[in-house]
Specification:
The chain is α/β, with parallel strands linked by helices and 262 residues long. 52% of the residues lie in helices and 11% in strands. The longest helix is centred in the C-terminal third of the chain and has 23 residues.
Amino acid sequence: MAQPFTNAEAASHGAANGESRGPRIVVCGTFRRAHAQLIEDFDALRLAGAVVLSPLDVAFVGDVEGFVFAAHEAGEQPAAIQARHLQALKSADAVWLHCPEGYVGSSAALELGVAHALGVPVFCREAPADVTLRHFAEVVASPADALAALGDVGAHTPSRPLDVLQDYYHRVAEERGYSSESPQDTMLLLTEEVGELARAVRRRVGLARSGGFHNEDAAAELADVQLYLLHLANILDVRIGEAVAVKEQANARKFRSEQIAA
Protein backbone atom coordinates (compact mmCIF):
# COMPACT_ATOMS: atom_id res chain seq x y z
CA MET A 1 0.00 0.00 0.00
CA ALA A 2 1.21 3.53 -0.74
CA GLN A 3 2.77 5.49 2.09
CA PRO A 4 0.42 7.98 3.80
CA PHE A 5 0.58 11.68 3.08
CA THR A 6 0.22 14.43 5.60
CA ASN A 7 -2.92 16.54 5.07
CA ALA A 8 -0.91 19.29 3.41
CA GLU A 9 0.96 16.82 1.20
CA ALA A 10 -2.25 15.07 0.21
CA ALA A 11 -3.91 18.31 -0.84
CA SER A 12 -0.99 19.34 -3.05
CA HIS A 13 0.33 15.96 -4.21
CA GLY A 14 -0.93 16.24 -7.78
CA ALA A 15 -0.02 19.92 -8.16
CA ALA A 16 3.52 19.26 -6.92
CA ASN A 17 3.99 16.80 -9.78
CA GLY A 18 2.56 19.15 -12.37
CA GLU A 19 -0.73 17.30 -12.46
CA SER A 20 -4.27 18.51 -11.88
CA ARG A 21 -5.56 17.73 -8.42
CA GLY A 22 -7.95 14.82 -8.20
CA PRO A 23 -11.17 14.81 -6.17
CA ARG A 24 -10.63 15.10 -2.41
CA ILE A 25 -12.14 12.16 -0.59
CA VAL A 26 -12.71 11.34 3.08
CA VAL A 27 -13.19 7.67 3.92
CA CYS A 28 -15.72 7.13 6.70
CA GLY A 29 -17.43 4.17 8.32
CA THR A 30 -16.42 1.20 10.42
CA PHE A 31 -12.69 0.48 10.22
CA ARG A 32 -12.88 -2.75 12.22
CA ARG A 33 -15.07 -4.77 9.84
CA ALA A 34 -14.19 -6.15 6.39
CA HIS A 35 -10.72 -4.61 6.71
CA ALA A 36 -9.41 -6.23 3.52
CA GLN A 37 -12.21 -4.55 1.54
CA LEU A 38 -11.43 -1.24 3.23
CA ILE A 39 -7.78 -1.49 2.16
CA GLU A 40 -8.78 -2.43 -1.39
CA ASP A 41 -11.16 0.54 -1.69
CA PHE A 42 -8.67 2.93 -0.11
CA ASP A 43 -5.99 1.94 -2.62
CA ALA A 44 -8.51 2.04 -5.49
CA LEU A 45 -9.41 5.62 -4.69
CA ARG A 46 -5.80 6.74 -4.75
CA LEU A 47 -4.94 4.75 -7.85
CA ALA A 48 -7.89 6.41 -9.60
CA GLY A 49 -6.34 9.81 -8.86
CA ALA A 50 -8.29 10.83 -5.77
CA VAL A 51 -6.61 12.58 -2.86
CA VAL A 52 -7.67 10.83 0.33
CA LEU A 53 -7.65 13.56 2.97
CA SER A 54 -8.52 11.28 5.90
CA PRO A 55 -7.58 8.77 7.11
CA LEU A 56 -4.08 8.97 5.73
CA ASP A 57 -3.47 5.28 6.30
CA VAL A 58 -5.72 2.26 6.92
CA ALA A 59 -2.95 -0.07 8.09
CA PHE A 60 -4.07 0.24 11.70
CA VAL A 61 -1.65 -0.76 14.46
CA GLY A 62 -3.84 -0.65 17.57
CA ASP A 63 -7.04 0.54 19.18
CA VAL A 64 -8.33 2.34 22.25
CA GLU A 65 -11.64 0.90 23.43
CA GLY A 66 -12.47 -0.11 19.87
CA PHE A 67 -11.23 3.12 18.25
CA VAL A 68 -8.48 2.09 15.80
CA PHE A 69 -5.45 4.21 14.96
CA ALA A 70 -2.59 4.12 12.46
CA ALA A 71 1.11 4.26 13.29
CA HIS A 72 1.38 8.01 12.72
CA GLU A 73 -1.53 8.54 15.16
CA ALA A 74 -0.01 6.54 18.01
CA GLY A 75 -0.20 8.44 21.29
CA GLU A 76 -2.98 10.76 20.15
CA GLN A 77 -6.33 10.89 21.88
CA PRO A 78 -9.23 9.39 19.91
CA ALA A 79 -11.13 12.68 20.24
CA ALA A 80 -8.30 14.57 18.55
CA ILE A 81 -8.11 12.05 15.70
CA GLN A 82 -11.87 12.17 15.21
CA ALA A 83 -11.91 15.98 15.30
CA ARG A 84 -9.28 16.10 12.55
CA HIS A 85 -11.30 13.59 10.53
CA LEU A 86 -14.43 15.73 10.82
CA GLN A 87 -12.43 18.83 9.91
CA ALA A 88 -11.30 17.09 6.71
CA LEU A 89 -14.95 16.75 5.67
CA LYS A 90 -15.09 20.52 5.21
CA SER A 91 -12.50 20.24 2.42
CA ALA A 92 -13.87 17.07 0.83
CA ASP A 93 -15.47 16.73 -2.59
CA ALA A 94 -17.05 13.42 -1.53
CA VAL A 95 -17.17 10.73 1.14
CA TRP A 96 -16.56 7.03 0.62
CA LEU A 97 -18.60 5.22 3.28
CA HIS A 98 -17.34 1.79 4.32
CA CYS A 99 -20.39 0.04 5.77
CA PRO A 100 -20.09 -3.73 5.20
CA GLU A 101 -23.45 -5.48 5.46
CA GLY A 102 -25.00 -2.05 6.01
CA TYR A 103 -23.38 -1.52 9.41
CA VAL A 104 -22.99 2.12 10.43
CA GLY A 105 -21.66 2.68 13.95
CA SER A 106 -22.16 5.74 16.09
CA SER A 107 -18.99 7.52 14.92
CA ALA A 108 -19.82 6.83 11.27
CA ALA A 109 -23.38 8.07 11.80
CA LEU A 110 -21.92 11.32 13.15
CA GLU A 111 -19.63 11.60 10.12
CA LEU A 112 -22.52 10.90 7.76
CA GLY A 113 -24.59 13.60 9.45
CA VAL A 114 -21.78 16.14 9.18
CA ALA A 115 -21.27 15.30 5.50
CA HIS A 116 -24.99 15.72 4.86
CA ALA A 117 -25.05 19.07 6.68
CA LEU A 118 -22.10 20.27 4.58
CA GLY A 119 -23.69 19.05 1.36
CA VAL A 120 -20.84 16.62 0.66
CA PRO A 121 -22.05 13.65 -1.44
CA VAL A 122 -21.62 10.17 0.09
CA PHE A 123 -20.98 6.98 -1.88
CA CYS A 124 -20.85 3.37 -0.68
CA ARG A 125 -20.88 -0.24 -1.91
CA GLU A 126 -23.76 -1.26 0.35
CA ALA A 127 -26.63 0.87 1.58
CA PRO A 128 -26.71 1.60 5.31
CA ALA A 129 -29.12 -0.72 7.10
CA ASP A 130 -30.62 2.18 9.04
CA VAL A 131 -33.81 3.35 7.35
CA THR A 132 -32.91 7.03 7.69
CA LEU A 133 -29.16 6.93 7.00
CA ARG A 134 -29.58 4.97 3.78
CA HIS A 135 -31.16 8.03 2.15
CA PHE A 136 -27.98 10.04 2.73
CA ALA A 137 -25.73 7.80 0.60
CA GLU A 138 -25.62 6.68 -3.03
CA VAL A 139 -24.81 3.02 -3.69
CA VAL A 140 -22.22 2.38 -6.43
CA ALA A 141 -20.33 -0.70 -7.53
CA SER A 142 -16.83 0.61 -6.83
CA PRO A 143 -14.76 3.65 -5.84
CA ALA A 144 -14.11 4.27 -9.54
CA ASP A 145 -17.86 4.50 -10.13
CA ALA A 146 -18.12 6.96 -7.24
CA LEU A 147 -15.48 9.20 -8.80
CA ALA A 148 -17.23 8.97 -12.16
CA ALA A 149 -20.53 9.95 -10.55
CA LEU A 150 -18.83 12.85 -8.82
CA GLY A 151 -17.76 14.27 -12.16
CA ASP A 152 -15.31 17.10 -12.71
CA VAL A 153 -13.33 18.49 -9.82
CA GLY A 154 -15.15 21.57 -8.64
CA ALA A 155 -18.61 20.18 -9.38
CA HIS A 156 -19.25 20.07 -5.63
CA THR A 157 -19.15 23.25 -3.60
CA PRO A 158 -20.13 23.59 0.06
CA SER A 159 -23.37 25.45 -0.63
CA ARG A 160 -25.36 24.37 2.43
CA PRO A 161 -23.32 26.41 4.94
CA LEU A 162 -23.92 29.44 2.70
CA ASP A 163 -27.63 28.66 2.75
CA VAL A 164 -27.60 28.53 6.55
CA LEU A 165 -25.84 31.90 6.77
CA GLN A 166 -28.19 33.45 4.22
CA ASP A 167 -31.26 32.19 6.07
CA TYR A 168 -29.79 33.53 9.32
CA TYR A 169 -29.42 37.02 7.90
CA HIS A 170 -32.91 36.89 6.41
CA ARG A 171 -34.26 36.44 9.96
CA VAL A 172 -31.97 39.13 11.32
CA ALA A 173 -32.96 41.65 8.64
CA GLU A 174 -36.64 41.13 9.47
CA GLU A 175 -36.00 41.51 13.20
CA ARG A 176 -34.01 44.72 12.68
CA GLY A 177 -36.36 46.24 10.11
CA TYR A 178 -34.04 45.95 7.10
CA SER A 179 -36.10 43.56 4.98
CA SER A 180 -37.94 46.29 3.07
CA GLU A 181 -34.77 47.99 1.79
CA SER A 182 -34.58 48.33 -1.99
CA PRO A 183 -31.89 46.71 -4.17
CA GLN A 184 -30.55 50.20 -4.92
CA ASP A 185 -30.22 51.15 -1.25
CA THR A 186 -28.64 47.81 -0.39
CA MET A 187 -26.16 48.09 -3.26
CA LEU A 188 -25.11 51.56 -2.11
CA LEU A 189 -24.64 50.32 1.45
CA LEU A 190 -22.61 47.37 0.18
CA THR A 191 -20.44 49.72 -1.89
CA GLU A 192 -19.78 51.85 1.21
CA GLU A 193 -18.73 48.76 3.13
CA VAL A 194 -16.37 47.73 0.32
CA GLY A 195 -14.79 51.19 0.57
CA GLU A 196 -14.31 50.74 4.31
CA LEU A 197 -12.78 47.33 3.66
CA ALA A 198 -10.38 48.90 1.15
CA ARG A 199 -9.23 51.41 3.80
CA ALA A 200 -8.81 48.60 6.32
CA VAL A 201 -6.64 46.68 3.85
CA ARG A 202 -4.56 49.80 3.14
CA ARG A 203 -4.06 50.25 6.86
CA ARG A 204 -3.14 46.61 7.33
CA VAL A 205 -0.51 46.55 4.58
CA GLY A 206 0.85 49.99 5.43
CA LEU A 207 -0.18 51.95 2.34
CA ALA A 208 -0.18 55.68 2.95
CA ARG A 209 -3.51 57.50 2.98
CA SER A 210 -4.10 61.25 3.21
CA GLY A 211 -6.01 62.04 6.35
CA GLY A 212 -4.76 58.91 8.07
CA PHE A 213 -6.95 56.06 9.22
CA HIS A 214 -9.75 55.68 11.72
CA ASN A 215 -10.54 52.35 13.37
CA GLU A 216 -10.99 50.23 10.26
CA ASP A 217 -10.42 46.58 11.03
CA ALA A 218 -10.09 44.13 8.14
CA ALA A 219 -11.93 41.30 9.90
CA ALA A 220 -14.86 43.49 10.90
CA GLU A 221 -15.13 45.06 7.46
CA LEU A 222 -14.98 41.68 5.74
CA ALA A 223 -17.86 40.56 7.96
CA ASP A 224 -19.86 43.66 7.03
CA VAL A 225 -19.29 43.07 3.32
CA GLN A 226 -20.32 39.42 3.68
CA LEU A 227 -23.51 40.29 5.53
CA TYR A 228 -24.51 43.04 3.09
CA LEU A 229 -23.84 40.68 0.20
CA LEU A 230 -26.17 38.10 1.74
CA HIS A 231 -28.70 40.83 2.41
CA LEU A 232 -28.57 41.91 -1.24
CA ALA A 233 -29.04 38.29 -2.31
CA ASN A 234 -32.14 38.05 -0.12
CA ILE A 235 -33.51 41.33 -1.48
CA LEU A 236 -32.99 40.04 -5.04
CA ASP A 237 -34.37 36.60 -4.14
CA VAL A 238 -31.13 34.88 -5.18
CA ARG A 239 -29.89 31.75 -3.39
CA ILE A 240 -26.20 32.55 -3.07
CA GLY A 241 -25.17 28.94 -2.34
CA GLU A 242 -26.81 27.67 -5.51
CA ALA A 243 -25.35 30.58 -7.50
CA VAL A 244 -21.84 29.83 -6.24
CA ALA A 245 -22.23 26.12 -7.05
CA VAL A 246 -23.36 26.82 -10.61
CA LYS A 247 -20.63 29.40 -11.15
CA GLU A 248 -17.92 27.10 -9.78
CA GLN A 249 -19.05 24.31 -12.09
CA ALA A 250 -18.58 26.68 -15.01
CA ASN A 251 -15.20 27.82 -13.64
CA ALA A 252 -14.07 24.20 -13.22
CA ARG A 253 -15.03 23.35 -16.82
CA LYS A 254 -13.20 26.43 -18.10
CA PHE A 255 -10.10 25.65 -16.03
CA ARG A 256 -10.08 22.03 -17.21
CA SER A 257 -10.44 23.14 -20.87
CA GLU A 258 -7.56 25.60 -20.49
CA GLN A 259 -5.37 22.89 -18.96
CA ILE A 260 -6.11 20.52 -21.82
CA ALA A 261 -5.44 23.26 -24.38
CA ALA A 262 -2.11 24.09 -22.73
